[in-house]
Specification:
299 residues, Nucleotidyltransferase, domain 5, 2 domains, 5-stranded mixed sheet, 12 helices, globular
């Protein structure tokens, strides 16, 4: 029945806004468009530009994912001074059937897509996305239906990884305003970590590259390993962990490095359990739109 309905999908992040149409769960790839947020005064402006671009005959339902918590009928972005309400979306699209979700929830639903992940789900899966911000999502299945709860995991506490690193982590927490993961593991804050360790200023791409021979990379990998290991034991994603976002994908190449494994596998009697969980990456920047399409067709 849903294959005859037209869904408008949106993924509003801290840096980019991406849109597409779908027929049921099938994303229409030729309708995808992406806009830089710095060139837009508001999310409504980006949505208006997209609707004018594709000019759909009708919109039966809107599913909007955004990088912030859903509070009633609105979302406030965590890393940008933007707020989106259902009333605004209805006025701009002429559609009053609107579903709001966190962007990582959308990414979580995308983990059910075989083309995206390489195989069908066979259990619980987890995605950790690190880009402008940091968050995770977990895909569960129950009675033939899939469910992804919301989370704001970028604001879980920084891990304790030894006294030698404490002064740097304390400094990052003070600069960021609170001692959370995103203070260290996010694109905007990696340069601050690198500078605290080396006194030098570098871009995230260089910091995470094999050209970086400084101690900052080791510290990043230790924080990353400790964080991912904790998430693995918290959610037990036996069917795989997936890394996404520009920083997450860049970190994937380091998941065999001793600095990462030393903290990731430091789980006492559960070392082998964590070791057996496969880690992969997702490079498709439009994956949240894929997940939004699957969710909106399911509901």
């Amino acid at each position: 029945m849903t294959c005859n309905l037209t869904y408008l999908l949106a993924d509003i992040g801290g840096t980019n806004s991406r849109f597409a149409l779908s027929r049921g769960a099938a994303l229409e790839r030729d309708t995808i468009a992406s806009f830089r947020n710095d060139g837009m005064p508001s999310p409504g402006a980006a949505l208006t530009r997209y609707v004018h671009k594709v000019n759909p005959a009708r919109i039966d339902r809107v599913c909007l994912a955004a990088a912030g918590p859903v509070l009633g009928d609105r979302i406030t972005l965590t890393n940008r001074n933007w707020q989106i309400s259902a009333g605004q979306i209805a006025a701009l699209t002429g559609c009053d059937d609107i579903r709001f979700i966190n962007d990582l929830q959308a990414m979580g639903y995308a983990l059910a897509d075989e083309d995206l992940t390489g195989r069908k789900p066979a259990g619980t899966r987890l995605v950790l996305a690190i880009g402008t911000g940091t968050n995770c999502a977990v895909l569960y299945e129950s009675d033939g239906r899939r469910f992804v709860p919301p989370a704001e995991a970028g604001y879980i506490a920084l891990p304790h990884i030894g006294a030698r690193y404490a002064p740097v982590l304390d400094k990052l927490a003070e600069q960021f305003g609170t001692p959370v993961i995103e203070a260290a593991l996010s694109g905007p804050n990696l340069p601050a970590l690198h500078r605290a360790v080396t006194g030098e200023t570098q871009e995230p791409a260089h910091i995470l590259s094999r050209a970086n021979r400084t101690p900052s990379l080791e510290l990043i990998l230790r924080i990353f390993g400790a964080t991912l290991g904790t998430l693995a034991l918290t959610h037990l994603p036996r069917d795989g962990i997936f890394l996404a976002g520009s920083v997450g994908v860049a970190l994937f190449q380091w998941t065999r490095h001793p600095a990462f494994t030393s903290t990731y596998l430091d789980r006492g009697p559960y070392r082998d359990l964590v070791k057996d969980i496969a880690i992969r990456d997702i490079k498709d920047e439009f994956a949240p739109l894929v997940g939004a399409a699957r969710l909106v067709a399911q509901t």
